[in-house]
Automatic annotation (TrEMBL):
It comes from the Bacteria. It holds the Pfam family DUF2000. SUPFAM superfamilies: Peptidyl-tRNA hydrolase II (SSF102462). InterPro entries: DUF2000, Pep_tRNA_hydro_II_dom_sf. This is DUF2000 domain-containing protein.
Length: 136
């Protein structure tokens, strides 16, 4: 972990608020599981109650239209970043097996992305997401 890496989530700007939150949560879970080095130590309060660990570095959330998401996704893949994806079709499924089948059925350049997350070196993430605004 450390300040040399970065986590970023990109969500399509025209989604409903609940969809943006849902996509961000799912994509963040992909980074946590796929890149365990991003997760810090468990928390504990003064009463001794234990809590789950969270990311040990900030998560920046960006928004973009569909075309910009596609371009940034292609750049992220070209830079060999760790990537999680969420496609429009995943709003119609209700389990992980169907989600994976929906993504598997579509070629990379034809994915109907509503969002993706990346983890990698700050420099590579910044280059992949160049020009995208932070979510407002």
């Amino acid at each position: 972990m450390g300040t040399k890496t970065k986590i970023a989530v990109v969500v399509r700007e025209d989604l409903a608020v609940w969809q943006k939150l849902n996509v961000t949560a799912f994509l963040s879970s992909g980074v946590a599981v796929g890149c365990p080095e991003t997760v810090g130590e468990p928390y504990e309060d003064a009463s001794g109650v234990k809590y789950l660990p969270m990311f040990g570095l900030p998560v920046l959330v960006y928004s973009a239209d569909a075309a910009a998401i596609g371009q940034a996704h292609a750049r992220a893949l070209a830079k060999d970043l760790a990537v999680a994806v969420y496609t429009e079709e995943l709003f119609t499924t209700n389990n992980d097996e169907d989600n994976r089948a929906r993504v598997r059925a579509v070629a990379t350049d034809e994915l109907d992305l509503v969002g993706f997350a990346v983890h990698g070196s700050r420099n590579a993430v910044d280059k992949a997401l160049k020009g995208l605004p932070l979510h407002g």
